[in-house]
Specification:
The protein is α+β, with helices and mostly antiparallel strands. The chain has two helices and five strands. Strands 3-1-2-5-4 form a five-stranded antiparallel beta sheet. Strand 4 and strand 5 form a beta hairpin. Helix 1 crosses helix 2.
């Protein structure tokens, strides 16, 4: 809501809303402590451009990669902060997150797919194996 983007109905089926590996910007936020794992958010490139344009009151074609990175990191940190309250024990968020397109080797425990103004966003929570 801060960026004026419309989250499509989370109850609706959005199975076709995945980002392909080539079209994704991925950020990972680590948790340590009571819960050890990773929050991964996978954004379409078009969604990140829209979000950055909204955040910086610019045209989508005028945002640069630094502004996109800032917005993606801020969105992931907001999600991580809210999620932390639901994790077990004394879990802590490790800042900053990493932005890349690699995959990680952890056990996925929850995945949610959304669309913002028709653009895909995938959120995955994984746990580090003991």
């Amino acid at each position: 809501t801060q960026l004026g983007l419309v989250l499509d109905d989370p109850e609706a089926e959005v199975s076709d809303s995945e980002c392909t590996q080539d079209d994704a910007i991925v950020i990972r936020i680590r948790f340590i402590g009571g819960f050890s794992g990773t929050l991964e958010e996978r954004f379409s490139r078009d969604l990140t451009a829209q979000a950055a344009a909204a955040a910086f009151a610019a045209d989508g074609n005028e945002v640069d990669s630094g502004e996109i990175r800032d917005v993606v990191a801020e969105l992931a940190h907001m999600t991580a902060g809210n999620l932390k309250a639901m994790l077990p024990g004394d879990s802590q968020v490790v800042y900053p997150g990493t932005i890349d397109t690699r995959t990680i080797e952890e056990e996925s425990i929850a995945t949610a797919r959304f669309t913002f103004d028709g653009e895909p966003l995938q959120v995955n929570l994984s746990r580090r194996s003991s």
